[in-house]
Amino acid sequence: MKAAEVGTPKRTKEIIAKYGFSFKKSLGQNFLIDQNILHNIVAAAELDKSKGALEIGPGIGALTQQLAEEAGTVTAVEIDQRLIPILRDVLAEQPHVEVIHGDVLKLDLKQLFQEQFSKVERVSVVANLPYYVTTPILMKLLEERLPLENIVVMIQKEVAQRMAAKPGGKEYGSLSVAVQYYCEPKLVCIVPHTVFIPQPNVDSAVIKLTLRDTPAVEVPDEDHYFRIVQGSFTQRRKTLANNLTSLVGKENREALTELLTASGIDPTRRGETLSLEEFAVISRAFLAKGWG
Ligand code: SAM
């Protein structure tokens, strides 16, 4: 028999009352109570029984339950000890779901993948993320080069828009470049705050990040590439030449202008107009000149 769906207003309120659970704002606890949204999130991950799902922050299991229907194996990492017994109860009839108590930012994810996902072909991260740590969590997943097929997450709408932004607009910045270096982003849907208990005071969106087989651009030194990207956005109103001068020193200002021009990049442009490839052109030119 299929267990009653957790992600409805009635059932969520019942569970909260039954266990005397109180929400911790500091842990970003906003639980989903809309079955349509839950279905849309899970559908976007394109799971099947040959695949695994890692959920970060399962709460009382609304999304976990849906993931268990679709994926061959589900691992859910929850920081709040008070939720662990609730999750074990709610998910009792799902033997292929593992609940782990821990802080995802502190876990050794490579080891977790070896332990939990050695028998599945591909893994997705699917989560309604705690908004206070969205970016650190996503950057950890990407920088550790985990064998992921895609990441489908509910996050703050503005952050989703920044991740998916193309050059030329005010939303495009170092986060857009960092995410697009590793993934192809796609906004799945915008979500009103009425589908959560308690309601957050920001709008939300579901974003799908499909991992690239190789990064979007080829660079000799990733750390240097990202230093150039960060440096180019230090002060958004400033030109590229002005922002990058702080990386090479005032005495090299003229050489910098010449190097940018010789690389086919107008030094008076602003960072927000540059493509991922143009940042790579600058990084390569800097390294060739010995500006590490
Ligand atoms: N997945 C549930 C849902 O959609 O209803 C709950 C989502 S709620 C937005 C975020 C969840 O992440 C909470 O259960 C919170 O306790 C948990 N959480 C917060 N920080 C975490 C961390 N660093 N590691 C793991 N879980 C975390």
SSE diagram, text form:
Blueprint lengths: L8 H11 L11 E2 L2 H10 L6 E6 L5 H9 L2 E6 L5 H7 L6 E5 L7 H9 L4 E7 L5 H10 L4 E9 H8 L9 H9 E9 L4 E2 L6 E8 L10 H11 L7 H9 L4 H10 L13 H13 L4
Parallel strand pairs: 2-3, 2-5, 3-4, 5-6
Antiparallel strand pairs: 1-8, 6-9, 7-9
Give the structure's gist in a few sentences.
With 292 residues, the chain is α/β, with parallel strands linked by helices.
Task: Please report which band the strand proportion falls in: under 5%, 5-15%, 15-25%, 25-35%, 35-45% or over 45%.
Answer: 15-25%
What binds here, in terms of ligands, is:
S-adenosylmethionine
- Could you name the CATH topology of the largest domain? Rossmann fold
**N-to-C SSE string, H for helix and E for strand:** HEHEHEHEHEHEHHEEEHHHH
Mean pLDDT: 96
